[in-house]
Design brief:
Layout: E1 4-14, E2 20-30, E3 36-41, E4 49-54, H1 55-61, E5 71-75, E6 83-90, E7 93-100, H2 101-114, H3 126-143
Antiparallel strand pairs: 1-2, 1-7, 2-3, 3-4, 5-6, 6-7
Length: 144
């Protein structure tokens, strides 16, 4: 049975040190791809852009710097845990987003109630949908 968790969070898109603007970001978690979360960024004047990456990366990145390569997540201040930075990179192009930690934690808590962290592989239909999920991820990355 396919189930999902969705939330909308307002994030700051940090264009430079002097320029940023708030954008809506849709967070989605789906049991057919239990290891991943999807963030869809609604940038003004552009088509929405979706990134998929490991749910565990987002969970860990709320409390400490995490990630290598294209996706990095870290708290703005590891002692305060009030805000999180999400850095997305393709080649030399990168985008930096800042979010309050509370809505991310609330979303992650809802995903954990649906599929507890570490129990993703126990889903009965996971193997049946793995190829479809990987195809979707690759298609999203190719389109992004």
């Amino acid at each position: 049975m396919r189930e999902s968790v969705q939330a909308e969070v307002m994030m700051s898109f940090l264009v430079s040190e002097e320029l940023s603007f708030r954008i809506p970001v849709e967070l989605r978690y789906d049991t057919c791809d239990p290891y991943a979360v999807r963030l869809t960024f609604h940038l003004p004047g552009d088509a929405p852009v979706t990134w998929a990456f490991g749910r565990e990366l987002l969970v860990d990145g709320v409390g400490r710097p995490c990630g290598e390569g294209d996706v990095r997540v870290s708290p703005v201040d590891p002692d305060a845990l009030g805000e999180v930075l999400i850095r997305l990179q393709v080649g030399s192009d990168q985008a930096l987003f800042r979010s309050s930690t509370a809505p991310l934690v609330a979303f992650l808590d809802r995903t954990d109630k649906l599929v507890p962290l570490g129990q993703e592989g126990a889903l009965a239909d996971f193997d049946a949908h793995l190829d479809d999920a990987l195809d979707r991820i690759l298609a999203e990355q190719g389109a992004g």
